[in-house]
UniProtKB/TrEMBL annotation:
rRNA processing listed as a keyword: yes
One GO location term (cellular component): small-subunit processome
Assembly and binders: Part of the small subunit (SSU) processome, composed of more than 70 proteins and the RNA chaperone small nucleolar RNA (snoRNA) U3.
Pfam family, one: Fcf1
Subcellular location, record wording: Nucleus, Nucleolus
PANTHER family referenced in this protein's UniProt entry, alphabetically: RRNA-PROCESSING PROTEIN UTP23 HOMOLOG (PTHR12416)
Protein name per Swiss-Prot or TrEMBL: rRNA-processing protein FCF1 homolog
Length: 199
């Protein structure tokens, strides 16, 4: 004999024990909601305002000056190789001053992950003229790392051709962006009295 078919009742919920029930273990029991205090309209409201960096004179960054420290992104090295540009020399041609390319641990890890095809980029990144910056955070997502670094220390120029990263860095005042156009390096948001003429 088969089982008797039971008509399903719709929208019937299983009865659940309340989270504040005495039978639940005391540690797992939900605390009774504390009564909300009525806000005093005459009380002075406190709000946290981020401190404005002292190195900025409006949008003009006074910390920028030769020798320039340039944070290099992964794709910037790859596109430089494609355009047959020497990184350090082309940076000096762009800014007319000594430039120190800086490579973070995240960028180095990204290049290493790209594998055998990008071994030239890896060899360039390990150049002794490049400064290595250690990373203390978790993960190896270079974009977040670069954005966080320039937000904290506004003494860097960011070299990238990534549209998304450029868009994020444009929101941070006083950080110039170096990019590749017409087979040479160009810079945006740099004070006019520094470096080569813009094209």
């Amino acid at each position: 004999q088969g089982k008797q078919k039971k008509a399903r009742k719709y929208a019937v919920m299983k009865r659940m024990i309340s989270l504040r029930d005495q039978r639940i273990n005391e540690k797992e029991r939900a605390k009774a909601a504390a009564k909300k205090k009525k806000e005093d309209p005459s009380a002075i409201k406190e709000r946290e305002v981020p401190q404005h960096p002292s190195c900025l004179f409006f949008q003009y960054n006074t910390q920028l000056g030769p020798p320039y420290h340039i944070l290099v992104d992964t794709n910037f090295i790859n596109f430089s190789i494609k355009a047959k540009l020497d990184l350090v020399q082309s940076m000096m041609d762009c800014l007319y001053a000594k430039c120190i390319p800086c490579i973070t641990d995240c960028v180095m890890a990204e290049i290493e992950k790209l594998g055998q095809r990008y071994r030239v980029a890896l060899r360039i990144a390990k150049d002794p003229r490049f400064e290595r910056l250690p990373c203390t955070h978790k993960g190896t997502y270079a974009d977040d790392c670069l954005v966080q670094r320039v937000t904290q220390h506004k003494c860097y120029i960011v070299a990238t051709v990534d549209k998304e990263l450029k868009r994020r860095i444009r929101k941070i005042p006083g950080v110039p962006i170096m990019y590749i156009s017409r087979h040479r390096y160009n810079i945006e948001r740099m004070p006019d009295d520094y470096g080569a003429p813009r094209f």
